[in-house]
Amino acid sequence: MRACIQQPYQLSKQSGAALAETFVVLMIFFAMAGGAIQMAYLYQAKSHMGYVAFLAARQGAIRGSSLKAMEAGIRAGMLPMISKPIADGGAPQTSLTGTWWATAKADIEDELEENIELTILNPVAEAFNDFGGPEHCLATDDYAANAVCIPIDNLAGRRPGRGRTSNLNPQEATLLRVRVKYGVPLVVPVIGPIIAEFLSLNSFTLSDFDRKMLESESQSDQGLLFPQPRIAVEGVATIRMQTPPQLTSANISLAELRRLVH
């Protein structure tokens, strides 16, 4: 009877290959899933910024393109995007009183100061030299002292010729076009910083605000393992002025507008 001799177990060259392949596949899967989640969040923020820009433009249209009025519209639009429900006595609190409202207002003020940019794309600053004057401003608190305003009355009867420096006619000069930019935090770990690093490679094509957002980190990243850089998304809205527009620091020049377009 032949004795059964048990051969010692020897590791083959393929040992552990399945584990390594599984690890690689899982890394790719989680990267794709994280990227999809982050892009969906950015798309939602981009869609919402159009609404924020509309609220800002609507306030500006009825209040002489006052920056204070348009910032009030931005605050109203950003409230559901920035504020978070907090627990008060064990239950989430979202009423417009108490701790939640105070915290929400503080968060929005911080974002408005650091991570939101308001720009008036139309009328350009040169339009106020072509058509404006202090006599066209209204006697309300929305207008600054010695403000220069463009008239909105009798537009159909005004000469349709274009201004010498703005290249706008009187009807076009009374259209308020507002752009609002917001630095959205990249909240997905690992994927967010990779996206920001990739975009920073072409930072020479970005605006100063866009570069600032890429280089900044969300205040909520304190104590987290991964930083949360930001990406600027924007919304644009156009509304016919219902009150005479006034020249503000947010009105860009025609040269700056052409650089944005090209």
What are the salient characteristics of this protein?
single chain; 262 residues; alpha+beta; 3-stranded antiparallel beta sheet; two-stranded antiparallel ribbon; 8 helices; 5 strands
Quick rundown:
44% of the residues lie in helices and 13% in strands. The chain is of the alpha+beta class. It has a 3-stranded antiparallel sheet. Strands 1-2 form a two-stranded antiparallel ribbon.
Structure report:
The protein has 262 residues and is an alpha+beta fold. It has a domain at 41-179 and 242-261. Helix content is 44%, strand content 13%. It is built from 8 helices and 5 strands, in the order ααββαβααβααβα. It has helices at residues 17-62, 67-82, 98-114, 125-131, 170-173, 191-200, 208-215, 254-261, and strands at residues 86-88, 91-93, 116-122, 175-185, 230-240. The strands form 2 sheets. It has a 3-stranded antiparallel β-sheet with strand order 3-4-5. Strands 1-2 form a two-stranded antiparallel sheet. A hairpin with a 2-residue loop joins strand 1 and strand 2. Helix 2 (67-82) packs across helix 3 (98-114). The longest helix is centred in the first third of the chain and has 46 residues, at 17-62. It is elongated.
